[in-house]
Amino acid sequence: MGNAVFRFTIIDPAGTVSFLGPGHGPKVFAAACSQGAEDHRGLLRLAESYDAHWIAEVRAGLHVFDEHNVSALATSFQDHVRSTPGDRLMPFRVIDTVTRRLSTQSARSGLILFNLNQKRIIQVQNSYSELREQDRGRIRADGHPTSSFFFYRLPETWRILP
Known about the structure:
Elements: E1 5-12, E2 15-22, H1 25-34, H2 40-47, H3 52-68, H4 75-83, E3 92-93, H5 97-103, E4 110-115, E5 120-126, E6 134-141, E7 144-153, E8 159-161
Parallel strand pairs: 1-4, 5-8
Antiparallel strand pairs: 1-2, 2-3, 4-5, 6-7
Helix pairs in contact: 1-2
């Protein structure tokens, strides 16, 4: 995933998911928000056109989490948390105080919350690059940058908070 690693926490009407992602991830999700994503599934679906490889990894990780942690954290996930550095944790859903705490811990480059309910992007910590209301990013193929760009402009109803 490179040296720039963010923790992304996505809040939607159904709950909260949290996972790690690359330095270009904030732009990918800002672009997906600009297209009207209303929940984390929609956000991932829209983001897929910008970096399908990364989004497939996130979906696979959430699927594994869901298989093993139905109503409470399984012992295997608790063991994973104890033995894995925070910047290597698998994707997860916030279902208790342990996962809530993990979802608010910054990775190497920062922590960004995408609150789809309130249309807010909250940069709790961002030591990588400034996220703007309008910008461009490079499309990835098989995890590698291509020569193609995507462009986005967040609607006026969205806010980016420092």
